[in-house]
Amino acid sequence: MLNGKRVAFGWPVGAEIAGPNGVSGWDGWIMRANGLSQSAQYAESAIRYMIFPKPDPDYDMRKFNLETQSNLFDPVATLMNATDPDLSAFRARGGKLLMYFGWADPALNPLMGIEYYEQVKQQMGAGVENFFKLYMMPGVFHCSGGVGPACFDPLSRVIAWVEQGKAPAAIEAEQREGQSIVRRRNLCPYPQVERGGRCVAAP
Fold this sequence. Notes:
Blueprint lengths: L37 H12 L16 H4 L4 H7 L7 H5 L4 E6 L7 H15 L7 E6 L16 H11 L6 E7 L2 E8 L5 E3 L2 E3 L3
């Protein structure tokens, strides 16, 4: 919360679990034995080099006051954040968007992906699923890794969608350890969930 308004989601349970390599999803991104975590390094770099008129390589980010200075991020956010829900031009050009998010992502909160999808639905109205599909990946860290099936081929699905009109439905994903496949499961287009190997409406 900032000035009474939510600016970020609370983190869902899950990313703290250790993956097959024995390392927690938080390791590196949220905590680190020595030095700043990766997330803190991004924040420090942004504050030092991107938001002030004159970069300050020695700025101590602990001095930054979120309540009074958060607006300094607005120009950078406008440029960099993929948060505009108006995809009408993209849809008009025949664009197809397949977005996926690991439920245990320690870098980008997975609830951000769901919120954006819902905002696009609200902005664009009925038929969003005809050009935009979101797949949530249980147990998957940032893009890969974790305890869930993170391996699948999104590009071939998009090509078939664009060139042949074959919209993706359930997508089989694999969890691999080395060269071995240890698990397979279907990824379902949000808000559907898998039950008994099929994608069904969420309860």
